[in-house]
Amino acid sequence: MELAKATLDSQDQQRSHSASADKKAGDKNLSALYWRLLSQLQASLHNQQILATFHERVAEHFAIDGISYAAYPQADLLLIGEQQPHQAAYRLRARDDDFGELTLFRHKRLLPEELADLELLLGTLISPLRNARQYQNAIKASRKDPLTGLGNRMAMTEQLEQEIAIANRHQRPLSLMLLDIDKFKSVNDTHGHQVGDQVLRQFSDLLGRLNRQSDQSYRFGGEEFVIILRDTEAKGAMVAAERIRNAIASQTITANQADFQITASIGLAAYQSGDSTDSMIRRADMAMYKIKNRGGNDFCCAENTHLIHSTGE
Question: In what residue span(s) does the GGDEF domain sit (predicted)?
Answer without folding.
Answer: 172-304
